Each structure stands twice: as C-alpha cells, then as structure tokens.
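the two lines:
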Amino acid sequence: MPLYGGIEAGGTKWVCAVATGRDQILAHAVFPTTTPTETLDQALAFFQRHRDIVAIGIGSFGPLDANPSSPTWGYITTTPKPGWAYTNVGAAIQQALGVPVSFDTDVNAAAFGEHIWGAAQGLDTFTYLTIGTGIGGGVMANGKLIHGLLHPELGHMRIPHDRAADEYAGACPYHGDCLEGLAAGPALRERWGQRGETLPADHPAWALEAHYLALALVNLICTLSPQRIILGGGVMQQTQLWPLLRRKVQELLNGYLQMPALLDEIDSYIVPPALGDRAGVLGAIALAHSG
Amino acid sequence: MPLYGGIEAGGTKWVCAVATGRDQILAHAVFPTTTPTETLDQALAFFQRHRDIVAIGIGSFGPLDANPSSPTWGYITTTPKPGWAYTNVGAAIQQALGVPVSFDTDVNAAAFGEHIWGAAQGLDTFTYLTIGTGIGGGVMANGKLIHGLLHPELGHMRIPHDRAADEYAGACPYHGDCLEGLAAGPALRERWGQRGETLPADHPAWALEAHYLALALVNLICTLSPQRIILGGGVMQQTQLWPLLRRKVQELLNGYLQMPALLDEIDSYIVPPALGDRAGVLGAIALAHSG
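prediction for all of em together
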C-alpha cells in the first residue's frame, strides 16, 4: 500500500507522520516550532528517512496561501508569530522531497480528516471548529474545502458581547471582543483569573462560555447551513459545556428552523471529532491521499 | 433557441417570465401573492400560454425544501406567512406543466443569476445579500449553491447590538435583534419613526445602518470567505450607504486579512447586483437553464 506523509504544522509544535491510512501510522515525530529554518529542517530530516512516500499533506497555522495558482502558494503569510511571516513551507517541502504536496489550514485539514475517516463521513457540507488557545474552523461545502478569497477565519466573527454580564474587554489583538477574543482559552484565563481547566464544572464561566459559543454556532447555521458541526480543542474537553451549548443553540434559534437535527437530534448534530487528538496529523495525511 | 420559464415567488408578489436568456424576455406577468391556490393558478395560466417551454426555475420565499431527495421537495415549509405554511409549489407546477422544475430560495436564485449573467461571473464562491423588507442571502461555494442542512438564512445571524447608541429592541418576531431585526426596512422605520427612503442622506440612521451591515459582512468574510459580496434590495438604493459600509468593513477587519480585495480594491469587492430589479426572475430562469 502507498505511504503518505502528513505534517500538522502548529504554532507551538509540529507533528509529522508517515502512514497508509487512519490506523496505520508507521512513524511519527513531534518537535517544537522554533525558527522556520530549524523547524523545516527537522521535518525534512524526518521524511528523508522515508524515501518511499508518494505525497505529503500539510495542515498549517495561518493565515496562509492555499491557492495553487498563486505565486505565493504554500506560504504562511501575515501571521503575527515572530519570524514566520511570509515563510515558504509548502513549496520548500515539495522541492526538497520531490513529491506532490497538498497545503491547507490546520483546521481545513482536520475537517478533511473527519470527512474521510471521522464524524463527517458521507456529509458534503459541514464545519469543524476548534476552541483552544485560539478559535479556528475548517469548512467543507458541496464536497470541497472552502477557500474562496482566502480561507475561513471563523474565530474572528463578531458576536454580541454581553457587557452587562461580562465586563471583560476581549483578548484579540486585532478585534478585541471577536469570538476568539471572548471565548478562547486566554479569555477564560484573563476573565476569571485562573486557567479554564481549574474552574469547577458548576462555575458561571461555563454558562457564559456556552452562550458565546452558541451565538457562533447559530451564525454558522445561518450562513453555512452545515449538516453537522464538529467541535474540538481543549476547551471542549469540559464535558459540562456540551449540554449547555446545545440547549443555548436551540434557545437562540427559537424554533425558526424546524429541522430534526436542530431539535430532537441535536446531540448528533453538534458532536466531538471522531479522530480526537490525532485529527490534525490524520487530516494532513488525508489531504495527501486526496492529492 | 429553447424557451425557459422563471418564477420569482415573493411574499408580496409573483413575477413570471418566459425567456431564452438574459436579454430575451418574451413575456412576463406580475400579480400579487394572495392564497396559494389562486396564486398558483395564475402562474399556471401564464405558462399554459407558452406550451413550448422546456424547463422552469422557481426562486421562492421560504424557509423551503430544496432537497430533491426529500418527500417534501418543492414545498414552502415553516413560513410565518398566513396560509402558506407547507404549500406544495415546485412539485405542483412540475405535475401541472410536465416540465422539469428547479426549486430554490429567491436569494439563491438571484445569486445564481448573478453567477451566470451578472456581477459574479467566473467566481465559484460568493455571497448575494438583499437588504429590504427582510434580509436574506444566497451563497455559492465551490461552484454550487449551498443547501447543506437546509439553506442559508443570513438575515438571522446575530451581530453585536450597540445598545448605548441604539435603544431599539429589534423587529424580528423570532430573534428580536438579529441582523434582520436590527437592519431591515421595518427596523429603520420603527427606530426613526419614518420610512428609510424619507430620511436625509446625512441622517445618523445611515452610519448606524452601515455599522450593522458591516458587522454582517465581516461575519460573511470570516465564515464563507467569498470572492465577492453582492448587495441588493431597497435599502441599498441609498447611495450614501456604500462608502460608509465599505469603510466600516475595513475598520472592523483592522488589517487582519491582507488581501487587496479587502483593502485598495474594496470598491469592486462589495458591489451592487448587475441584474438590478430583474435579478429575481432572471435568477429563476438561470436555474431553469442549469436544470
């Protein structure tokens, strides 16, 4: 069976793997994201030990250029991460290893992995949203990942900020109280003075978090009309969030859309990723598969 | 050349036309939306005078069922319009006239017309938004109209409501201060005590309107990543809105996405429909064309 390479190129660590499919990971390596040169060299050294791979998929932090007809295809572009703005990742790896490279956002890759092997099998229009240190999302519409002008930046949508209940100004350096600014991990920590993981399950933080995330999900439902919404990331490890969030989505929609998926069947509409922790690197391998 | 039929099935009036293409409308009729039976009979009578049409496209008010594999395909479903809930439109016309029928939302039809003949030619991912008595939108992603779970309901996204500057509670019977509740024609009239068309061009209403619409456009950009946004409807006839709106979108994005379309080229990114008043019925004819 052909061997595929995958890179989950994150802002804090890179995960590289060689695999034939979802359950056949033959080798993998994890290393911290340092300078572009050092990090790329480590990835290349890993794959040069596996000369027989036929293609590589890369799911990267961004913003980035995933347009194959663009001269800067394969670049991480305007990232605020020091040293990484306008870094050639995709074409550099393609040239060094001489195999086809598929290059997309980390979240589009994770969405694609869920489409091929996970919670979105058989669906052609769905959303994968991750809520952790940041908030980002991948979107498939009509069977293909959405790029359009650039790629979705779901974390930066604007939602109503309940200033009466929540004086916290928001953590996003660009937008203040966008979704990510109000609901990602750093906002939880700064608003409540402790890390989210250390807050008790009945702390009011979680009702507010569910409220903000529900507003975002309602906006996704009204714009993308996804057949399912997959929620990953560290914040969603808080199991008490799930029932709160599903109920808030229903309250906010208020019966306007009479679809079973949004009513009795909401537990199978808003779901965790089936690939769990491996969604990132498996998504990259799935991208390599699809070429 | 083959003849196509189109129906713009609106909540206040229906427009029917027979055409070979964008500039060859051979016959058309306009009549008020009364009861389902009477309105459908008028449409059928019109098309029965044109026995040689090969297909019909229908762009209808909704929510509706546009899923060809559903038993209620062609129905207007949960509309609050009295007498019209669960009305069979698409299949009824198909059976009466014996020709293929394409059935979609009025706004998806208008978007499709702009794709074939108007301001979205050559684009595969874009949004058409109409701001009038209500707010609705059609979305094409990866070359096809989005349906997904149901279809987009762009008017019902939630945006930040500036209660300090705007005490008006919102007009939406389901959601109060959703986008439509804050920024459609009825909200303008109720907030300011007069119809939008009668407000002077330098009235503060327009800065507030531009602010709310800009929040919605930012959310569309962050979720759908459209290659262009087309804005139609009566409210957008207020020409002073356009520069305010484009500038507010840039202020809200605050340089996060360094794409020329969102910077120097925004005048050709946020644009009016090329088909103008005829977008609805021409969109329906375009749907018939595409089968």
